[in-house]
Amino acid sequence: MVTRRRMIGAALATGGGVLLVRTTLRPAPSAATTAAAKDAGHAHPAGAAAPDPGPDAGPALAEKFTTALPLPPVLSPVSTDGGADTYAVTMLRSYARVLPGRRTEVLTYNGAFPGPVIRARSGRPVVVRQTNLLDDPVSVHLHGSAVPVDSDGGPMNLLGAGATRTYTYPNDQPHASLWFHDHAHHLESEHVYRGLAGTYLLTDATEASLPLPAGRYDLPIALRDARFDTAGNLVYRMDDAEGRATVLANGRPWPKVDVAARRYRIRLLNSSNLRFFSLRLADGGPITQIGSDGGLLERPHTTDTVDLSPGERADVVIDFSRYRPGTSVVLTNSMPPGPAEHIGQVLRFDVGRPAPDPSSVPDRLRTLPPLGPVARERTIVLKVEEGGAGVAPLGLIDGRQYDPARVDAAVAFGTSEIWTVHNANTDIPHNFHLHLVQFRVLQRNGAPPGPEEGGLKDTVRLMPGESVRLQATFDSYRGRYPYHCHLLDHSAMGMMAQMEIA
């Protein structure tokens, strides 16, 4: 188990930041990526980023805990014919009122910032017609899903400017709190930073049978950081973890959340490019974690801290009946980098009157399938190599940058494998995301994982020097799928590889 102290210590070892990659250059596209982008109608240039605009102006422009937490809009299907729910989504530039009195240009799905929510049910397919009205090519990835390769949203499966593509999600998997985001190689980092991310909540009979908080008491909250200039514009620079001092929850800086004095289910998503969060209530109050990336844990566990690397999710229940009406409690973050007075606070819960609460958290939430026999073991090594002056760093897996023409791991369909993933950097954290499959964490640094990692996962954190042993079964679809670091700047630098399941 990674304790908060270990995570903070690792971060402080990098000089107060989560990253030690200091480049301000956009990584140069490979020939294959440039060609694919041209085929899609756009070639994204490499080159130096804009001059540094100075410190993040967000904290000076937004007073903490004065804006209400917005809830992302829930999409309605345009059709429910043929046994599937069909949605129409358009990617376009829009403006959002992120900071008081200012308009911020953002990239959106259907004009929503934060991105919208799609609610789905296991066994009932979802079809999404995505239309790209942006200038760049995009690729829509449903993170955590088991889908055919043509709907996975791979880094080279680009949807050009002005084009429309249909993505089909069979939902032949158990419940999970998933999310969708852009995955176009070299562009994914900036696109997600500027807003191309949304929530996909998949439920099933197992989850629906439990008396967990529901309806208005079930809150999806996407956390991230950002950097603004004095006009309220988002400032994007590669590897800018230290420059982003504004914490956003559902697209608003340091919001307040009015809650009744009862239990709430809160679905936390770390949608940051780079930032790790270590979350706790300011009074040290109990948080009951009931789920992670791949849905509910087998049993709930009570903690005072929830750690999330980029792309990870945690499903928690907080019982606000322990507070008197009129009490306020801040959700804090103890992970650097950045000024503690800004990045150390996330949002504030303002507790009102009691409300009827028929909900409870059962001692048993689900039963996970047993781990099957192992056909093969592999070792995967993640590393960032810094370049010299004016040279972009390289993101490497097993010593190589991503090449879409290369197969890095040949996997036999229907088999189960154990992968030991190692962070070879001593001063830079990573994490690891496998497309297509949910996996089980077997060991962390040779020891059993903590209860928070005891369920199904698709993204796992790796602090400097750490190793994680995981097991996955590849029995849903054949084809080529990526695996990569989900610190999106690292994957944009090439820290991505490809498996072929056949």
UniProtKB/TrEMBL annotation:
Catalytic activity: 4 Cu(+) + O2 + 4 H(+) = 4 Cu(2+) + 2 H2O
Plastocyanin-like domain sequence ranges: 98-204, 261-322, 395-500
E.C. numbers: 1.16.3.4
Gene3D superfamilies registered for this protein in UniProt: Cupredoxins - blue copper proteins
Entries under CDD domains matching the protein: CuRO_3_CueO_FtsP
Keyword annotations of the record: Metal-binding, Oxidoreductase
Stretch list, region Disordered: 31-61
InterPro entries reported for this sequence: Cu-oxidase-like_N, Cu-oxidase_2nd, Cu-oxidase_C, Cu-oxidase_fam, Cu_oxidase_Cu_BS, Cupredoxin, TAT_signal
PROSITE patterns hit by this protein: MULTICOPPER_OXIDASE2, TAT
Chain coiled-coil ranges: none
Listed GO MF terms: copper ion binding; oxidoreductase activity
Subunit structure: Monomer.
PANTHER family reported in the protein's UniProt record: BILIRUBIN OXIDASE (PTHR48267:SF1), CUPREDOXIN SUPERFAMILY PROTEIN (PTHR48267)
Assigned protein family: Belongs to the multicopper oxidase family.
Protein name: Multicopper oxidase CueO
Organism: Kitasatospora xanthocidica
